[in-house]
Amino acid sequence: MRFKILVIILVLSPVIFNCGYSQELEPRALTNLPKELNFVGLAYAYASGNTLLDPSLPLEDFDGQINSLILAYVRAIDFFGKSGKVDVILPFAGGDFTGIFQNTSFEDAYTGFGDLRIRASVNLTGAPSMNAKDFSEYKQKTITGFSLQLIIPTGRYNKEQLPNLGSYRWSVKAFYGLSHTWDNWTMEGFLGAWFFSDNNQFLGDATLSQTPLLVAKGNIIRSFRKKGMWLAFSSGYGYGADTSINNIKEMPLFLNLG
């Protein structure tokens, strides 16, 4: 079948839910898919604790209770004979939060859309593009892949509030990954970086600038083929995103993503 739409309702999905939060571990990101397959996804998630929508804000003791609804569309594509995919993700969230910024406590609440995300991914080796008929013969071994995601500042933003659903700046996220499968086990590793434009309406008319955020991630996945299920253990670490507000340096950012 050349065109097929799957509607998936996922509760607390570790794949789609991470699109709005700093963890962003996303196991099985390199999984091969038959070309011209389409997915429409709808996910609900609840999170509490240190769950920032912008993973690079210079905040301390952040605590939030956040309800999220995430809409996603994914299309598998043929990229010069290699498998790939394009996905579009739009989160809608509401919640309340408290924290400390520059030794001052704050609390607030929000409801609205987050920033729109568009990503293109291609599997460079080990995952050729195939139609659904030939895909049944494919056995995954070692795959390498690359992804590039653009985060567009379409989300709700109030320059007097911190944090916000939107970031009021453009971001680009690039990742390179390696995946190897044997029997029912898969190991994955990723190296990547975030790049940020300036936000010139940060807490009024201040300018927030940040250096790139470097990230390393890993996943160990156990597949249960007869039941079509899998279980993943994921961990990651981020470093960088040194923050400057009006050219005055704040704190460097260290993220334990596990």
Briefly, what is this?
With about 260 residues, the chain is mostly beta strands. It has one helix and 16 strands.
Please tag this protein with its features.
disordered C terminus; 258 residues; single chain; elongated; 4-stranded antiparallel β-sheet; disordered N terminus; mainly beta; 61% strand; 1 helix; 12-stranded mixed β-sheet
Characterize the largest beta sheet: strand count, sense, and whether it forms a barrel: 12 strands, mixed
Taking all residues together, what is the mean pLDDT?
Answer: 83
* Multimeric organization: single chain
Structural class: mainly beta
Kindly provide the radius of gyration, computed on alpha-carbon positions and rounded to a whole number of angstroms: 19 Å
Would you identify the regions where 5 or more consecutive residues have pLDDT less than 50? 1-22, 252-258
Order of helices and strands: EEEEEEHEEEEEEEEEE
How many separate structural domains? 1
User: What portion of the residues fall into strands of 2 or more residues?
Assistant: over 45%
The termini sit apart by: 39 Å
- What is the 3D shape? elongated
Amount of helix: under 10%
Q: So how many helices?
A: 1
- By DSSP, the count of extended strands is 16
